[in-house]
Design goal:
CATH class of chain B: Mainly Alpha
Oligomer: heterodimer
CATH superfamily of chain B: Winged helix-like DNA-binding domain superfamily/Winged helix DNA-binding domain
Structural class of chain A: alpha/beta
CATH architecture of the largest domain in chain A: 3-Layer(aba) Sandwich
Number of helices of chain A: 14
Radius of gyration of chain A: 27 Å
Largest interface: A-B, 37 and 32 residues
Helix content of chain A: 40-55%
Helix content of chain B: 55-70%
Radius of gyration of chain B: 16 Å
CATH architecture of chain B: Orthogonal Bundle
């Protein structure tokens, strides 16, 4: 290899491993780890050389350029990772890496704390149901390789959602993750992917450090064995969770199917006792059905949030949502932020609840 | 030497990848040598983030390749694909430059 001579004297550097100045290490921290591994050494040397040989105003420009390169590299890295389906870490970091730091660091938190202030002392829903809609549309909008990848982001987002609920003081959450109709009608690859994503979420996040007691709503028989097993295990592991918080995962769930199953189960119960159909017809009440629903023992949802702008219940908690306030949000599920959630709670607090009266 | 900063909004003339390609066309260089060469030849000061953004993209597309590092510095050289791209782009730029210059000459003589 021949190096072409050039006019300027080259600064001399010690061998590899020499400790770089603090500002260099800080700037390297702006770059994604894979990038640092590949270019970190040479970049540190270059940055030190350039900064050392420049007057002050030029130093600032160099540093700004170096940080800007980090933001761009992170954005490219995240986009690449998303396309390869190897998304690591919280979704927010991925999506927002390139967005204005100012808004992220200062304006957004200010707005959140203002919203929290507005909520203080207001009526909180005891139970929030969420129709997590728009994963695939979000993935398409983001230009991801496969719309199914949206499910992965969506599932990761679920964890954050639970944190927001915890912070807001909400004890019951039901998440509509996959409908019975999804299982029947989506193509088998996508369903298989969605199931794997749910398994991972349940095994890695919900079952490992149970901060929420997990309940299942849905027909486990319709699910792949591994998914059903992961869900049952999460229920088992979190059974003794003492936080008083309950999350119900609606997977392979349909509201009508649930009511039919509840009714069937009620009929079996009475058949065993020897009740006649006529006797049952005379005495049956709404509570008799409710006792046999998947959500038995939990309060009905006071608030149902649906993302992605669709204004339908789509067979979600059909029986239980009879008196629920409904809140529709334009954002697709993976892009649903804490501010959107807090706005939903604020809207709930502002509405006069009538219970059909 | 002019104190121009490189930004992408100045268009293709200051496109950092193109400047890097042009610089490496004169032989392999490491990062610092590229910035000095580009500054000497064109007056454009490539910032470190801009330079490595360009290096990353060029390497990814196989237009340049890394040589073994010496003293924590890694030189890069043009690949044959890189030579091709540089030649094509430079030719296009020359067409635009010729056009602009000839038309300007026309307006002046009028």
């Amino acid at each position: 290899m021949t190096m072409r001579p050039h006019g300027k004297a080259e600064p001399v550097h010690g061998p590899a491993g020499q400790r770089d100045p603090r500002y260099v290490r800080m700037i390297l921290g702006c770059y994604p780890p894979g990038w640092r591994e590949r270019y970190g050494e040479e970049f540190a040397v270059l940055l030190t050389d350039l900064v050392d040989g420049s007057p002050w105003p030029a130093k600032m420009r160099l540093l700004a350029d170096a940080v800007g390169g980090g933001v761009a590299a992170r954005r490219r890295h995240n986009r690449g990772a998303a396309i390869r389906g190897q998304v690591r870490g919280p979704v927010t970091r991925t999506i927002r890496a390139g967005k204005a730091l100012l808004g992220q660091r200062f304006i957004y938190p200010l707005y959140i704390s203002r919203l929290r202030g507005q909520l203080a002392g207001g009526t909180l829903p005891r139970h929030v149901g969420i129709i997590m809609d728009g994963n695939r549309r979000w993935a398409r909008q983001q230009g991801l390789a496969s719309p199914s990848l949206g499910h992965k982001y969506g599932a990761e987002h679920t964890e954050e959602m639970l944190d927001w609920c915890e912070r807001a003081g909400i004890g019951h959450v039901t998440l509509f993750m996959c409908s019975a109709e999804n299982l029947a009608h989506r193509d088998s690859d996508e369903v298989a992917f969605l199931m794997r994503v749910i398994e991972e979420l349940v095994a890695d996040r919900l079952a490992r450090h149970p901060a929420w007691q997990v309940h299942i709503a849905g027909n486990l028989d319709m699910l792949p064995d591994s998914t059903a097993r992961a869900l049952k295990q999460a229920v088992e592991v979190s059974r003794d969770c003492t936080t008083g918080r309950h999350v119900t995962l609606a997977v392979g769930y349909g509201g009508r199917q649930e009511v039919i199953e509840a009714f069937r189960s009620l009929l079996y119960e009475h058949a065993e006792r020897g009740t006649t159909l006529l006797e049952l017809a005379d005495t049956i009440t709404a509570d008799d059905i409710a006792r046999h629903l998947y959500t038995a023992g939990q309060p009905d949802p006071d608030l149902v949030i649906r993302t992605s702008g669709e204004q339908r219940l789509s067979n979600f908690l059909l029986w239980q949502s009879a008196y629920s306030e409904l809140y529709f949000c334009e954002a697709y599920w993976p892009a649903f932020r804490e501010v959107d959630f807090l706005r939903a709670l604020r809207s709930f607090a502002a509405r006069h609840r009538r219970y059909g009266r | 030497m002019g104190e121009r900063t490189t930004t992408n909004d100045l268009g293709r003339w200051s496109d950092p990848p193109l400047l890097v390609l042009a610089s490496l066309a004169g032989g392999p260089k490491h990062g610092y040598a590229i910035t000095q060469d580009v500054a000497d030849q064109t007056g454009v000061r490539l910032g470190p983030g801009t330079l490595y953004g360009a290096i990353g993209r060029l390497e990814e597309r196989g237009l340049i390749e890394a040589l073994p590092p010496a003293q924590r510095r890694r030189p890069y050289r043009l690949t044959s694909a890189g030579e091709q791209v540089l030649a094509d782009t430079a030719r296009q730029l020359r067409q635009v430059a010729d056009l602009g210059l000839s038309r300007l000459a026309l307006t002046r003589t009028r």
